[in-house]
C-alpha cells in the first residue's frame, strides 16, 4: 500500500487588508510541476495590475507510477519566489505554511495590492503566511492516496467494453471520441496494474496503453 498524504480538497481563496494593502491568497491542488505553473500563470493573468503575485508549491518532481520504486513515493519539488518583495519576506513564509501543515500536491499564490504603507519584513512575512493559511482553511485538507495516469486507446468496437470496465471500477476518466476512442484514466497506483490487465483481457490485447 502506497502512503497516503495530505492535500487540499479543491481551489479556494482568502482576502484581507493590512495597513491598506490588500492580500488575496489562492490555493489549488496540483499533481505536477506543469499544473502548478499553469495555476500560477492563471492568477498572474487574473491580476496583471497587482504589485506582487507570490507563488509557492510542493508537488511531485516526476509522474507517480506503479513502476516507480516505492510506488508513488516520488521526490517532492518545493518552489517559492518573492516576486520583487524583500528577500525572505514572502515566498519562503508562504512555502513554510505548506510544509508546516504537511500538505503536498498543492500550489499557492498570494496576490498583493500595495496600500501605501511599508509593512517591513516581519509584517510581510506574517501577511503572506496568513494568506496561505486562510486559503488552506477555506479549501479544507483531506488525506489522499497516490494516483497515476495512463491513456487507453481502442477502436470503436472495443470502446463499450473499456468504458464499462472503467465505470464499474469507479476510477476517474475522460473519453475522447475521434477516429479511435482514447480514455484518459486517473487511478490509484495500487490498482493500476490490475486495471490495465483487465482492459487488455477484455479487448484480447487490442487496447493501446500509454
Automatic annotation (TrEMBL):
Q: Where would I find the UPF0029 domain in this sequence?
A: 153-206
Q: What are its GO biological-process terms?
A: regulation of translational initiation
GO CC, sorted alphabetically, is: cytoplasm
Cite the Impact N-terminal domain residue spans from the record: 20-136
Q: Which family does it belong to?
A: Belongs to the IMPACT family.
Q: What is this protein called?
A: IMPACT family protein
Amino acid at each position: 500500500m502506497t502512503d497516503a498524504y495530505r492535500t487540499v480538497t479543491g481551489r479556494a481563496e482568502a482576502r484581507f487588508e493590512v495597513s491598506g494593502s490588500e492580500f488575496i491568497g489562492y490555493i489549488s491542488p496540483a499533481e505536477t510541476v506543469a499544473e502548478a505553473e499553469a495555476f500560477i500563470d492563471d492568477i498572474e493573468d487574473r491580476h496583471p495590475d497587482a504589485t506582487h503575485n507570490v507563488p509557492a508549491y510542493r508537488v511531485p518532481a516526476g509522474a507517480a507510477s506503479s513502476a516507480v520504486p516505492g510506488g508513488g513515493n516520488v521526490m517532492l519539488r518545493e518552489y517559492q519566489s518573492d516576486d520583487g518583495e524583500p528577500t525572505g519576506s514572502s515566498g519562503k513564509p508562504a512555502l513554510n505554511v505548506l510544509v508546516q501543515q504537511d500538505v503536498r500536491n498543492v500550489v499557492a499564490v498570494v496576490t498583493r495590492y500595495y496600500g501605501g504603507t511599508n509593512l517591513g519584513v516581519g509584517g510581510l512575512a506574517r501577511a503572506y503566511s496568513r494568506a496561505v493559511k486562510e486559503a488552506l482553511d477555506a479549501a479544507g485538507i483531506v488525506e489522499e492516496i497516490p494516483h497515476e495516469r495512463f491513456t487507453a486507446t481502442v477502436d470503436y468496437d472495443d470502446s463499450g467494453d473499456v468504458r464499462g470496465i472503467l465505470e464499474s471500477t469507479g476510477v476517474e476518466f475522460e473519453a475522447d471520441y475521434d477516429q479511435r476512442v482514447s480514455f484518459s484514466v486517473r487511478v490509484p497506483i495500487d490498482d493500476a496494474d490490475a486495471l490495465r490487465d483487465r482492459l487488455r483481457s477484455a479487448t484480447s490485447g487490442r487496447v493501446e496503453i500509454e
